[in-house]
């Protein structure tokens, strides 16, 4: 609340011990700047992501078991490392592998879209000839989708002796034209029809994703963590988690078996994760968390969060037309910038109103607050992406008209390590002490608990201000 502000930016003589006693050991490793590479060590708390993945898979496992109770289908593994078999390619952790009659598997009708060469492409050409693997992505995704397609490229190499095809479908057809897909495909040495990128009308993509593969398709909102396998006879044979190395080994083995089939396995059972009768699209696990993000600076230059690898930085959310709390917060950050002096910690301010806060508006705002462009960065970007940056990367709200009284501290590897109320002088000292310790880290933390300045409140109880 505004009436709690003690105006710490007026405390020009403040010299927090965390700054004056700093013994900084800055990472001397080369700084990554290329937006085409993604390091597996960056991103938000990997323990949180791991926990979410286990919970999602456990929910899936329970649903599958309930759906199959009447058929007494045997379950090969529950993913429980304490009671089940050791994880392997036959028993990926968290996966439920079941025996299903091949005849009962869902049939995928052939579908037609445009490929990266602007030509009509139909999966009917695979009927009776070869199996194919399907995944969904969008080209402007800076992190998860690139990791996905790196995995597909690896599978393409591992299965180079097999007669199999890869089909990658955009969920953002308005932006992902054939020309965009062609350039993107070249980055992965993808050549149709071996590896085809497809685009088309949104309703058609949604139909293919949700009605055929039971994958929720939302424009630039979700990335499925599944790669789906369709066999030579159009049966939805199996699905695999692309970010699970055990499941990727299983994929290679299953594809080789399916590619070797010379006739439909009528009357036989197959081992699969894909027992989907009556399942709704939302039931399938999806990856909904950004591990990094791509926005634009006030100088209209692309900004990738991974560009700050090796540096510690402090971030906040605001919008320039906010008449109250944002002005006070920005004045505080101006004072913090001055007190930091030559200290290398960067400040990153992200607008939650990108429609209004275009680069020119941010440049003027930065000048009004005497922002040093080498130290204090202002960001804007796609109005659909920024809320995800707030809610997923920072675990904060970032919608239009929203802002918080919080500052977020990010470590050298892109992990959000703490959040602090800038109105509280004691929390400022706590924040700068954390900054001090993070600069002295020499390797990524195996485990850490995000610090909530001044309290132990649950992360979901995140205070926000709304301007009427």
Write the layout of secondary structure elements.
Elements: H1 17-20, H2 46-68, E1 98-101, E2 112-115, E3 120-122, E4 132-137, H3 144-158, E5 165-170, H4 178-186, E6 195-199, H5 202-212, E7 223-224, E8 226-230, E9 236-241, H6 245-260, E10 269-272, E11 286-287, E12 294-297, E13 302-304, E14 313-318, H7 325-340, E15 346-351, H8 359-368, E16 376-380, H9 385-393, E17 402-403, E18 406-410, E19 416-421, H10 425-439, E20 451-452, E21 465-466
Parallel strand pairs: 4-5, 5-6, 14-15, 15-16, 19-20
Antiparallel strand pairs: 1-10, 2-3, 2-6, 4-8, 7-11, 8-9, 12-13, 12-16, 14-18, 17-21, 18-19
Q: Can you give me a brief rundown of this structure?
A:
By secondary structure, this protein is an alpha+beta fold.
């Amino acid at each position: 609340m505004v009436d709690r502000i003690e105006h710490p930016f007026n405390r020009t003589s403040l010299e927090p011990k965390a700054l004056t006693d700093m013994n900084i050991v800055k990472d001397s490793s080369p700084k990554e700047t290329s937006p085409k590479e993604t390091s597996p060590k960056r991103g938000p708390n990997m323990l949180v992501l791991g926990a979410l993945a286990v919970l999602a898979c456990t929910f899936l496992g329970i649903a599958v078991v309930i759906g199959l109770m009447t058929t007494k289908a045997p379950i090969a593994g529950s993913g429980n490392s304490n009671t089940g078999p050791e994880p392997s390619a036959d028993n990926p952790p968290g996966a439920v592998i079941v025996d299903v009659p091949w005849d009962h598997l869902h049939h995928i009708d052939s579908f037609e879209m445009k490929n990266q060469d602007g030509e009509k492409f139909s999966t009917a050409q695979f009927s009776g000839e070869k199996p194919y693997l399907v995944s969904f992505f969008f080209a402007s995704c800076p992190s998860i989708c690139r990791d996905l397609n790196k995995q597909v490229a690896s599978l393409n190499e591992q299965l180079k002796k097999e007669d199999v095809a890869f089909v990658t479908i955009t969920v953002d057809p308005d932006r992902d034209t054939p020309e965009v897909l062609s350039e993107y495909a070249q980055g992965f040495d993808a050549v149709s029809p071996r590896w085809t990128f497809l685009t088309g009308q949104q309703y058609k993509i949604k139909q293919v994703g949700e009605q055929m593969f039971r994958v929720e398709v939302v424009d630039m909102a979700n990335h499925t963590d599944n790669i789906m396998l369709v066999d030579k006879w159009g049966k939805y044979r199996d699905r695999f988690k692309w970010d699970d190395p055990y499941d990727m080994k299983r994929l290679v083995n299953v594809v080789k078996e399916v590619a070797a089939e010379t006739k439909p396995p009528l009357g036989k059972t197959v081992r699969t994760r894909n027992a989907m009768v009556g399942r709704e699209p939302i039931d399938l696990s999806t990856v909904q968390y950004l591990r990094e993000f791509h926005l634009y600076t006030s100088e209209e230059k692309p900004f990738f969060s991974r560009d700050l690898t090796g540096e510690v930085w402090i971030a906040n959310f605001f919008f320039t037309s906010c008449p109250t709390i944002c002005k006070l917060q920005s004045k505080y950050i101006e004072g913090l910038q001055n007190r930091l002096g030559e200290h290398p910690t960067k400040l990153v301010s992200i607008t939650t109103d990108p429609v209004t806060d275009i680069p020119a508006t941010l440049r003027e705002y930065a000048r009004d607050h005497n922002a040093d462009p080498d130290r204090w960065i202002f960001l804007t970007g796609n109005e659909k992406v920024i809320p995800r940056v707030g809610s997923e990367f920072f675990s904060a709200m970032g919608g239009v008209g929203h802002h918080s009284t919080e500052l977020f501290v990010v470590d050298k590897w892109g992990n959000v390590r703490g959040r602090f109320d800038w109105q509280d002088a004691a929390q400022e000292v706590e924040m700068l002490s954390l900054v001090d310790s993070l600069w002295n880290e020499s390797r990524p933390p195996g485990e850490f608990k995000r610090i909530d300045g001044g309290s132990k409140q649950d992360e979901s109880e995140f205070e926000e201000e709304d301007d009427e």
